[in-house]
Design a protein that fits this description.
By secondary structure, this protein is an alpha/beta fold. The chain is 45% helix and 17% strand.
Length: 309
């Protein structure tokens, strides 16, 4: 899957993923009203609105992008109905030949971590049959529990030729409370980055490893350091757009081949019609506004990379 991601990025000139992180406050009234008319103001109604919203955005953008990143919490909040929509979204994205990064941030030990890995990336055996449950192509993983929490994911990734993105330096303001703490004279995120590079050697693709990292766009200087520490890992870069990251901030996240990073934008794309820049589209044409936002993001990042050559 990592080679497919690299190939699709080269083909589209779009090292990006669209974060499918829907909130009811993002969804236009005409979609909400239709879903509530059919299912009532229920969890099922909310889930149906999310599904129709996702589907429209996917249909409007899939030909421009290589990947999407649905954040599972936005679906879990609606219970089992929401998780059904998460699964439907993953399946629909695969039908559109999009790679799916499941933003699940799992990480535990032993059989628990193995179960998470099987549920999201692998297969589970039921009697004489095996099933892929959520079947994402990549998943985000929290490394706080160490190798015990990561190895089960790597084992499944080897079996399925899939990958993970390990949290190293996240984009949120308080990430430094732990991640920037000095340990033996160096910030913790550097030690985690070195461990990611070590794990990356265990599961290499043709050029890049299936074991990647999450490093926020809001910390470009740290991104530069971590790029050097993890030369064979793709970096998933959240924090573009709504959180302040710009194309010019992201150059150091990439390698000289123009690969090595995939930049995520969530509400900056899926709720683009709410921004002044795209307001002329109106809520009825929210998906067209999302397409325009994707096009602008591609131009911004591509322009920054070309200027840096």
């Amino acid at each position: 899957m990592i080679q497919k991601l690299a190939d699709k990025i080269k083909k589209t000139h779009a090292p990006i993923c669209v974060g499918l992180d829907p909130m009811l406050s993002y969804i236009p009234d005409h979609i909400l009203n239709k879903a509530f008319a059919e299912f009532g103001e229920t969890l099922e109604g909310a889930a149906e609105a999310v599904w129709q919203y996702n589907k429209a955005i996917i249909d409007a953008t899939y030909d421009l992008i290589p990947s999407v990143k649905p954040q599972i919490a936005m679906y879990e909040q609606y219970g089992t109905e929401g998780l059904k929509v998460f699964q439907k979204t993953v399946e629909y994205c695969h039908k559109k030949d999009l790679l799916v990064i499941g933003d699940v941030k799992r990480g535990d030990i032993g059989s628990t971590s193995a179960a998470y890995a099987a549920g999201h990336l692998g297969k589970v055996t039921v009697g004489n049959k095996t099933y892929a449950a959520f079947d994402e192509d990549f998943a985000t993983v929290n490394p706080y529990l160490g190798t015990d929490g990561i190895k089960p994911f790597i084992d499944v990734c080897k079996e399925e030729k899939k990958g993970i993105f390990i949290l190293v330096k996240t984009s949120n303001p308080s990430s430094g409370e732990f991640q920037d703490r000095l340990t033996d004279g160096r910030p913790l995120y550097e030690w985690v980055g070195e461990k990611v590079a070590e794990w990356a050697e265990e599961h290499m693709g043709e050029t890049y490893s299936y074991i990647g990292a999450v490093v926020g766009a809001t910390y470009p200087e740290m991104g530069k350091i971590l790029r050097d520490i993890m030369p064979k890992s793709f970096i998933l870069v959240p924090g573009y757009g709504a959180q302040g990251g710009k194309g010019k901030d992201l150059v150091h996240f990439f390698n000289e081949d123009g690969l090595g990073a995939v930049v995520n934008s969530s509400r900056g794309i899926i709720a683009a019609y709410k921004q002044e820049k795209y307001a002329a589209f109106g809520s009825e044409n929210f998906a067209d506004a999302s397409r325009a936002a994707v096009t602008d993001m591609i131009k911004d990042i591509d322009g920054a990379l070309n200027a840096a050559k």
